[in-house]
Design brief:
Layout: E1 6-11, H1 20-29, E2 33-38, H2 48-55, H3 66-72, H4 74-80, E3 83-89, H5 91-98, H6 105-112, E4 117-121, H7 125-129, H8 131-142, E5 146-147, E6 151-154, E7 160-164, H9 168-177, E8 188-193, E9 198-199, E10 205-206, H10 213-224, E11 228-233, E12 245-248, H11 252-262, E13 268-271, E14 278-280, E15 299-301, H12 305-310, E16 317-324, H13 328-338, E17 343-348, E18 359-366, E19 370-377, H14 378-391
Parallel strand pairs: 1-2, 1-3, 3-4, 4-5, 8-11, 8-13, 11-12, 13-16, 16-17
Antiparallel strand pairs: 6-7, 9-10, 14-15, 17-18, 18-19
Helix pairs in contact: 1-2, 1-9, 4-6, 5-8, 10-14
Bound molecules: cytidine-5'-monophosphate.
Length: 394
């Protein structure tokens, strides 16, 4: 996948820089050409000599080095890169690039390059969780940069939590995804994600714990596989994926209307949203007062979006989801039949399982196969699932 691809590997100052040598070696094993750019702090953790030996190329570390500029200057490096990977990406480097600074070689290359830029953050868990870092990450995502990881676990400083750099092979998988463009090229995929809100009065609603993470991860994976993706999302706290057409909805009825509007243009429909099965019949015009001991609300079934799409004369390939607390296989198989979908992606859910979490396990049910993926992070799981459906020739 990475044969002859040109990769600029940015190394910044953090203990995870010891893994950058292994990452370089593995990128080269995968066929890539690697040019390493180190910040001054990176050199406190790993030597340029090591990075030069493993990359097979001179290391770049100075914006104002006349000789280096004469050989391959910063603008040339920026143009040369098919992709830029920053691993480890320190909190400082994230902050500087988020603000468009260009005060060393690496930040200047990032500002000058049109290539996709992938950050593999690595830092202490408290630094990762800090509002300043989180705001910088959001700013990066909004500008179209890609963030992979970090993983959770024990840290060099003795803390436990999020902030460990992804392992080199995991980073390579993300990088390879940029070059897997043809897998779903020409396909248009419609994905629903997140919960819906059914209002009872102007300020109260009922909903569910869906975070939208699985649907969003599928949208990104489908996009990375070359599909053109439309994402119809209920209210969630996630950044909109870049290069995906996003439509925001609130209620099950809104979601139904948006799907019906978009469906004709789609080859595949993935219904990952946790759509409310009921909506309030008479939404109160004003806030309901607590006058009576018992308050009766009349609820009415919402239209089943998946079933409605399945009933269309010209229907796309349909993937429904089943989130169950028990009897996963039995319920999933029933749904496959009743909703007339081509596949069901089923997962067990509970208070700390499947719904709202970062990891998930999904079993795919179709007429001729049953296959389980995970447990994996939702991002990796999404890539595996997209690969699976692409291989099925949807
Ligand atoms: O019917 P149930 O909610 O158990 O099935 C889940 C699947 O059906 C999901 O794919 C969900 O997005 C979809 N669904 C729907 N319209 C509804 C309720 C669920 O499309 N009103």
């Amino acid at each position: 996948m990475l044969k002859n691809k040109q990769i600029v590997l940015g190394v910044t100052g953090g203990i995870a820089a010891y893994k950058s040598a292994d990452l370089t070696r593995r990128l080269r094993e995968a066929g890539a050409n690697v040019r390493v750019v180190m910040t001054q702090s990176a050199k406190e953790f790993i030597t340029p000599l090591t990075m030069q030996a493993v990359s097979g190329n001179a290391v770049h570390d100075d914006l104002f080095d006349l000789k280096a500029e004469a050989a391959m200057g910063h603008i040339e490096l920026a143009r040369w890169a098919d992709v830029i990977v920053i691993a480890p990406a320190s909190a400082d480097c994230i902050a500087r690039i988020a603000h468009g600074e260009a005060n060393d070689l690496l930040t200047t290359i990032c500002l000058a390059s049109k290539a996709p830029i992938v950050f593999a953050p690595a830092m202490n868990q408290a630094m990762w969780k800090h509002t300043a870092t989180q705001e910088n990450l959001q700013a990066l995502q909004q500008k179209g940069f890609h963030i992979v990881g970090p993983a959770e676990g024990s840290q060099a400083c003795g803390d436990v939590g999020p902030g460990r750099m992804l392992e080199p092979l995991e980073i390579i998988e993300h990088v390879a995804a940029f070059f897997k463009k043809d897998l779903l090229a020409g396909k248009h995929i419609l994905i629903t994600a997140g919960p819906t809100r059914e209002y009872v009065d102007p300020v109260r609603y009922f909903s569910n714990a869906s975070s939208g993470k699985m649907g969003y991860a599928l949208a990104e994976a489908a996009r990375d596989a070359g599909a053109s993706v439309t994402l119809i999302s209920g209210p969630v706290a996630l950044a909109k994926p870049d290069r995906v057409t996003s439509i925001d909805v609130v209620s099950a009825k809104d979601m139904y209307d948006a799907v019906m509007q978009e469906i004709a243009a789609c080859d595949v429909f993935m219904s990952a949203a946790a759509v409310s099965d009921y909506t309030c019949d008479n939404v109160a015009t004003h806030k309901i007062k607590k006058t009576d001991d018992i308050l009766n609300l009349q609820l009415r079934r919402t239209p089943d979006i998946v079933a409605s799409v399945a009933a269309l004369a010209k229907r796309p390939f349909i993937i429904g989801f089943a989130a169950e607390t028990e009897n996963l296989s039995e319920f999933a198989k029933t749904k496959l039949q009743q909703k007339k979908t081509n596949m069901i992606f089923a997962n067990l859910v509970g208070r700390d399982q499947g719904i709202g979490t970062d990891d998930n396990t999904i079993t795919v049910f179709s007429d001729d196969e049953e296959k389980t993926f995970g447990p994996l992070s939702k991002a990796r799981l999404a890539r595996e699932l997209i690969l699976y459906i692409a291989k099925k020739g949807i």
